[in-house]
Amino acid sequence: MAEPLADEDDDVEGRHGPPLSAFPAADKEFFDFVENGSVDDVRNFLDANRDFDIDVVNFQGLNALYVAVQEKNVGMVEFLLSRDIDVKDAGLHAVRVNEPRIVVMILDKLNAVTPAGEYVGVSGSSDFPDDTTPLVVAAQSGHYEMVKLLLDRKHRIAKPHPPSCNCEEICKPQRAAEDTLTLTKKRLNLYRAVANPAYICQTSEDPFLVAFALTKELDRAASYESEFYYQYKSLSQEIRKFTGELIGFARTASEVEAVLKRSNGVPGHSAKFFYPRLLLAMDCKQKEFVAHPNVQQVISSHWVGDWYEWKIRSSFGKVFTVLPRVLLLPVVVAAILLAPNSGRSKRWQTPINKFLSFIASYVVFLVFVFLQSNVDKTNQTRGPPSSGYEAFLVIYVASYAWSAFRLCVIYGLRRYLRTYWNW
Q1: Confidence (pLDDT) at 379
Q2: Which among 121, 175, 270, 340 could bridge 131 via Cys, Cβ 3.0 to 4.6 Å?
Q3: Do residues 260 and 277 lie in contact, with contact meaning Cβ atoms separated by under 8 Å?
């Protein structure tokens, strides 16, 4: 999902070792044995050359442990680690090539040299940014099993603070002590790790909520640090794709509804909405999630209810449905008030029927407004109008005002005012 730390074909780019012409014969022989994968040959060579520096690098600047890791030679790695070789960034390379056995051996070696040494980030590497940890590399690479292995070993990633943060505990001291470009690259490096699906799914009980929050945070970061706008936006878009793909794994409508009905992260009274998670997704501009066929199918089914005939009606037929509903309004109101649990009342309370009843009621309201505005005012004297329509208009206006206030409380003022109809 995220950009790799470095292309594998370019691992050696930027490394510096002795020129090929100056490469000693003993060193060349040693590396030939390592590349051939013969542990016995390497052991015999080192026994015959007691003063040989096992940490020597070849003309590409690579030491023997790195070569063994790239060859995925478990036996060779185990032997070299037994000879007290400098590990350097070999553990990170082992994570990137997804070799759990080699990673475990290297981490155990680091712990043997320094207590809890496996948790210390690597510095001075030509392939990885400073302070990069094995879990960061595993998460960025999307290696699910490797992430699980490291999480089981108590590895953790400290979530980066957004660029706009200026807290006294972390951000201010960092800005005072480090280069701003270095800090930004470190932050992006961590964001690429915590935003990877392999990491999100294993560190969160609600990956949708974490993904939604991350997209908002990355979008704000893109606006704050416009120099890295593309990098932040690219990460944000990748997370949106992930949420769309994740909801696609739902096999039944009940599973999709279980996700949409989650109220975690939905502020205030919006949690009372029938599908709170859908509101949150729209607030976070999760188009891939909202537009996914699984979500749209559930929304459509909830909207129509069991009124399947509605779907096959023509557009003219759907518009014409409003006219008889005007005459049925008193019956609908009476049925819902007197027998709310009856089959007919429940059908009239489905979203599509509520919408039709609202349109029908609004038509009646407009009729009263029209009659009131066109009443004969020839004999009208000073004082309140007395056409007889005033009481109906007052009831309607009071009802619409209460409805607007209720929606404003449920949705929140900002979300309510984003809808032009409410204006």
Answers
A1: 67
A2: 121
A3: yes
Q: What crossing angle do the helices spanning 322-338 and 351-373 adopt, rounded to 10°?
A: 110
Number of Cβ within a 10 Å radius of residue 244: 18
SS3 421: coil
Beta carbons of 122 and 168 less than 8 angstroms apart: no
pLDDT < 50 positions in the chain: 1-4, 6-14, 20
Residue from 10, 7, 60 nearest 31 by CA: 60
CA distances to 13, 193, 199, 393 from 327, rounded to whole Å, are: 79, 61, 58, 18
Mind spelling out the 3-state secondary structure of 44-110? HHHHHCCCCCCCCECCCCCEHHHHHHHCCCHHHHHHHHHCCCCCCCHHHHHHHCCCHHHHHHHHHHH
Nearest 5°: the CA angle 401, 405, 407 is 115
57 DSSP β-pair partners: 63
217: nearest Cα among 249, 243, 189, 191: 191
Q: For residue 28, what are the contacts with CB-CB under 8 A and spacing of at least 6?
A: 58
71-121 confidence digits (pLDDT tens): 999 999 999 999 888 888 899 999 999 999 999 999 999 999 888 889 988
Mind listing the pLDDT tens digit for each residue in 228-259? 999 999 999 999 999 999 999 999 999 999 99
pLDDT at 274: 85
Residue 306 burial (10 A CB sphere; 0-12, 13-18, 19+): exposed
Q: How far apart are CA 215 and CA 243, in angstroms?
A: 10
Amino acid at 237: Q
